[in-house]
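Why do we care about 3D structure at all? Because function follows from shape, and shape follows, mostly, from sequence. That is the central idea of this module. The next example makes it concrete: a single protein chain, its amino acid sequence, and then its structure expressed as tokens.
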Amino acid sequence: VRDANERLRRLRAHPVPHPPSAAGARVAELAGVTVGDRLRVPELTLGATDRLLITGPNGAGKTTLLRVLAGELTPDHGQVTVTARICHLRQAEPVRHPDRTVLAAYATGRAEPPEAYEDELLALGLFRPETLHVPVGRLSVGQRRRLALARILGREIDLLLLDEPTNHLPHPRRGPAGGTRRVRRRARPGHPRQAAAPLLHRPSPGAP
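And the structure:
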């Protein structure tokens, strides 16, 4: 109970800011985009406040679409226009520095020493205090997934691409969940064009 109360206190002390109004802002546009026989998008516009659901079987081009939006893959044909700072959570991320602690990995690339971000990381509710000093190489796959999500949530970004973000994360009813792909714009104070635009994929019935 004490641990739950402490986590609640941290969440209240470091709330996620509400997104400012961004009605009408466009963050990404695709026109006539094709990638081999994997992807064909005649037209797609993502607005700052849009919600988009995509369903399809494995191999339908969902990850390819995210890579095109992220600028990681150049389409064979068509035009891609993105007017946002992007972060892409891929299905699998390599462990580049296994000896770094969770807290040090979270703080990588930021101005202050890792200890300055302890409350911020705990406020996300993804890790317990005793886990912050565990080397990344000793984390489970699910814990590494949480760390990747935490690093994204702590960045100054506009367009967030999440490829199956719940893989290896526990689900309260079904256990480990999978099969979702999301694009979400994270709000940041003082940025007039920030809001949320998820792109969500769920596998079709019978898909592995």
